[in-house]
Each structure stands twice: as structure tokens, then as C-alpha cells.
Amino acid sequence: MSIHLVIIDAMNLIRRVHAAQPNPDDIASTAQVCCRALTKIIRSSEPTHMVAVFDHTEQDRGWRAELVPEYKQGRKPMPEALQQGLDTIQDAFWEMGIDSLLSSGDEADDMIATLALKVASHNGQVTIVSTDKGYCQLLQPTLRIRDYFQQRWLDSPFIEKEFSVAPQQLTDYWGLVGISSSGVTGVPGIGPKSASSLLNQYGTLDDLFAADNIEPKWQKKLEGNQELAMRCKQVATLKTDITLGFNLQDIRFSAK
Questions:
Q1: In angstroms, how far apart are the furthest CA atoms of the chain?
Q2: 187 annotated ligand binder
Q3: How far apart are CA 190 and CA 187, in angstroms?
């Protein structure tokens, strides 16, 4: 049997749905809208396996904050009503036949990346449902990312149009420009156009910093910032070796 695993970036979906509700305290309404979205996703993707991955709710920002102390420091906390209602939403998912996976210490992004690559490397089809472009570093023929809200695929042509680099260069790109939404600065003075131009010329951060023919205006900005760029790249790179503690059979999807 051919496998099609659909992974829902749960908080990415839930927080966007919740923010659009007229009454933020009405968690039942948020759950209903999320379930309607999942019904559409199931109908269009026909998964054989499915799981919704949730971030842990503790304030610990994990190993990335040890590399870049500003990482997610300015993020708004989850609305209290939503945090209190997550169990209700998870129960609603369960009623649909969708298991929930809760991270404990590791970020959901890393758990999703680990699971997705594990299945894709064994020739299973994987669809990650999220608006987060960070997953695009994982793109390959059997692994794709679906932006449910914009109804688009975050595929290689999208990445090349959006960032002017190839998917495999994204972490190098973010090492240079940073990720503003997560408080990751990148190299001061290097913007998106400069970063894509440099990577198109040199390929990788390692080759860029090893080059001896860089224009003086870029050399001046890069000088002394290799360690910073590498730390920012490491923060942007998804871990793919998390211990998951379950197997595919545990998340086989059967509509209830």
C-alpha cells in the first residue's frame, strides 16, 4: 500500500483560526472551524496516515535560545483562553480520527521535520500543512508543504520566486538575513537581495566566507561575522533526529 502521511502543524493552524474568530473566548467555535479545515484537507489529500503536532506550552525556548539569546524573545504569549482550550481542540481532532503529538522540550518544527524526512526517505508521500516557510528546506520529490490559508504549495518555484535561492540554500540565506519574526538578526547590513546574490555566486555560507574575491563592500560587512552567520544558520536549520517514540502504525488514519 502506498503511504501518504499528512502532518498538521497544529498551532500554526489553530492560532490563525483563533485570531479570526469574533469571540476569542469561544473555543468551541475555534475547534469547529479547525475541524472544517481538516475535513477539507482530508478530502483533498486522502491521507493514509495523519497526525497533528503541537508545541509544548512551557516558556522554555529551547536550545536555539542558547545559540541566539534573542530567539523568540518578543513572541506574544498564547491567549489564555486558547491555552486553556487546547485539550478541547485536541479532543475534537481525536473525534475525527486524528492523533495529536505533543512535544516535550523539542519544538514541534523539529518533530515534524524528523517524522516527515523519515517517511519521505522510505518513499512515502508526505504533506506538511503549514504556512511556515521554514519547512521548505526539507523539500524533495516525496515531501511537500501546503499553505492551507493561501491555498498554495510552498514548492521550489515558490521559494525561488520568494527568496531567489534554491530550497537547499534557505538555511544559508537565513544565516545571512536572519528571521525577523523569531528575533534572529543575521549579519548586519546584509539584506535579502544581497544574500541571494551572494549565495547565487558562492553557493553556500562556507564557500562565501572562504572566498578571497568578494567585493570590498560585502567583505567589510561579512568580516568578523562568520560565527554569527553560522549560529543563525544553525537556529534556522530544522533538526531531523528527534526520538519520536511511535511508529507509522500508531498514526494510521481512518475517518470516524
A1: 63
A2: yes
A3: 6
Structural domains of the chain ordered from first start:
4-158+238-251 (3.40.50.1010), 164-236 (1.10.150.20)
Residue found under cell 502521511? 5
Output the 3-class SS for 200-221.
Answer: HHHCCHHHHHHCCCCCHHHHHH
What share of residues in the chain are helix, strand, coil (percent, to 5)? Answer: 50, 10, 35
Answer whether 26's CB lies under 8 Å from 68's CB.
no
- The yes-or-no verdict on residue 217 having pLDDT over 80 is yes
Q: Compare 157 and 182 and report the one with higher pLDDT.
A: 157
Residue 176 annotated as binding?
yes
Task: State the pLDDT at residue 59.
Answer: 56
Is residue 135 scored above 70 in pLDDT? Answer: yes
Contact of 89 with 31, CB cutoff 8 Å:
yes
How many angstroms separate the Cα of 255 from the Cα of each of 39, 41, 159?
A: 10, 12, 33
Kindly state the average pLDDT of the residues 102-131: 92
Question: Starting from the edge strand earliest in sequence, which strands make up the sheet with 152-153, in order?
Answer: 99-102, 49-54, 4-9, 125-129, 143-147, 152-153
- The annotation status of 190 as a binding-site residue, yes or no, is yes
- Structure confidence by residue, pLDDT tens digits, 48-102: 999 999 987 655 667 788 888 888 877 788 899 999 999 999 999 999 999 999 8
Going by C-alpha positions, the residue among 181, 3, 37 that lies closest to residue 109 is: 181
Contact assessment for residue 206 and residue 226, using Cβ atoms and an 8 Å cutoff: no
pLDDT of residue 60: 61
